[in-house]
Amino acid sequence: MVTFFIRRTIGAALMLFVVSISTFLIFFGLPRLAGATPETFAARYLSRTADAHAQQVFAEKLGFYDPLWLQYWNWIKAVFVGTDYDYGTGIEHCAAPCFGYSFRTNHAVWDDLVDRLPVTVSLTVGASILWLLTGVAVGVLSALRKGSFFDRAAMTGALAGVSLPPYFTGLMFLYFFSYQFDLTAPGGTYVNFTDDPGEWAYSLILPWITLAMLNAAAYARFTRAGMLDTMGEDFIRTARAKGLHERVVVTKHGLRAALTPIITIFGLDVGLLLGGAILTESTFGLKGLGYFAIDAINKQDFPQIMGVTMFAAFFVVVANLIVDMLYAVVDPRVRLS
Amino acid sequence: MNTVISPRQDPTARPFLELRDLKIHFPTDDGVVKSVDGLTFSLERGKTLGIVGESGSGKSVSSLGILGIYHRGNAKMSGEIWLDGQELVGASPETVRGLRGKRMAMIFQDPLSAMHPYYTVGAQIIEAYRVHHKVSKKVARKHAIDLLARVGIPQPDRRVDDYPHQFSGGMRQRAMIAMALSCDPELLIADEPTTALDVTVQAQILDLMRDLQQEFNSALIIITHDLGVTAELADDVLVMYGGKCIEYGTATEIFENPEHPYTWGLLGSMPRLDQPVTERLLPIKGTPPSLINVPSGCAFHPRCAFDGRTGGASDTVVPELQLTGTSGHRVRCHMPAQVRQQIWLNEIKPTLEGTGGLAVADMSALPSASEEHSEETA
Question: How far is the C-alpha of A254 from the C-alpha of A259, rounded, in Å?
Fold first, then answer.
């Protein structure tokens, strides 16, 4: 069990390493193939009025003339020990973990990311609990009453839920519940949990529902399929033959086995969303990581884009690791392999 | 089926288990699947009934029907099941659930898929015990260890915490038996208990089941397509075909004087060590009937070599299960009893040279060709 965990952790670290190389190559390797020079890199960081000489000096200072591997090394080193950016007119210190420094905003990317994280975490945690509970509950009921009116209605609803994008449902919710009926907070509201938990939940309820609807629908379908599969297994027949109450047969024997694949997608979905729920955040004007990413892309702020990409990748890899470990806890057969 | 097998009509002397005209039908989009279509038999405690037939003949469905597993869902059950004076078909699902696992228990074919992969063997036995007995986990655990020891699992106090996948096939089946025995059931149904096991292990499991049956004095129904297993364990044999009983009698009668052409076919498709290996097995031609469109008349007639000798009745009239001989031997066949006995003695028995119930019994631990046979017909 311990070796299993250690092996998986090493695997996750390797995965992050690969992701960091790919990210770096996408932003610093590929443009070179397309004809970008150190000067054009430098130009991205400077104002449009900077002349060729200023660009050259800047590129020199930031090491854009170094070989690619050295640039990568400096970049990854900064993550662990921090670095100083000397851009000619001053020196900016970027403390570890340094995920780059935006010369547009004059902010270390890491500080921005940490600043945005609570919004995204709040959105993700609330929505994920909501969609997990409703999705699994609806899926189980649908499976147990296969072909019934409830099943058909729920699966039709689920199809609609999967099909409707959050910028549509979100805007509809905002229009009706916030602006017509004045029941919920208007768009763009966010209150820190630590400031006022009640207001925090009130401001997030619509984004939660919007985001949860999308996933709850998918989870209901997954759970239904998994339950139908499991309830046909031999061990369910055995459980019934033992004289167990049907409730125990369904929950302890059926649901436990059916939920294992759900854990996998749940972990990945949560990991993915922690890197930024772009559509929902944009719809509700929540200044989370997704919003930050879109903003950075629009501004062509490379350090920010790279930082948020690495951050998101980190969450996905860690979520994957947790899923693997949970799997070993849930399914004893995994531990041996 | 109108005929009632049990000769006892005196209600005070009702047999321990009695089925009367049990029917289990499943309505589907393609039509009604008549899995069990009028099954009648009785069984006393301490006795063993072997139910024999090809895949899809309704063996397993009838046993699950006795356990009341089809009480929910879309199955249509009719007829009567009497267990120790209690009628089960009309009883509430909750009543039957209370009996299930406690007074009647089941051993399944493939112990790997029949045990939950996520729970330890011990936990599954403890669960089976505690659902019917209000005892602490500790007491139940002790009971589980005792049971595992009783069914011959070495170091039961350690193995009780193992998962099913950590057991070998034979061990798993032993654990499955321990689970079934956890509440001292009076009726034990074993559905192909040895089919998924190595031949060497098969004999051990059969021995174990016989010992345990004597010890607990339970009624045992053993469902199999392996005549060797039947010969080894059964007092009575019931041959099923197309959801109906087509021959019923004591094991000696069935093996020594079988009268139904299907039973002859089953006997003929059994491999024998006391014959030259060049001798060919005699498989039954054709495939088992669809339970949605059961052949008209005698369900076996399309595969029967003797359907010409029934005077044209074979494909129009459903034959009754009629008494033949003396010891309660019943056969569902259009041919007159004398004709059947003649054919058996003159045409069939000589080709199964040396056939006799006892000789068959000796074969139980040997590899069975009925495996091969069922693959052919599947």
Answer: 9
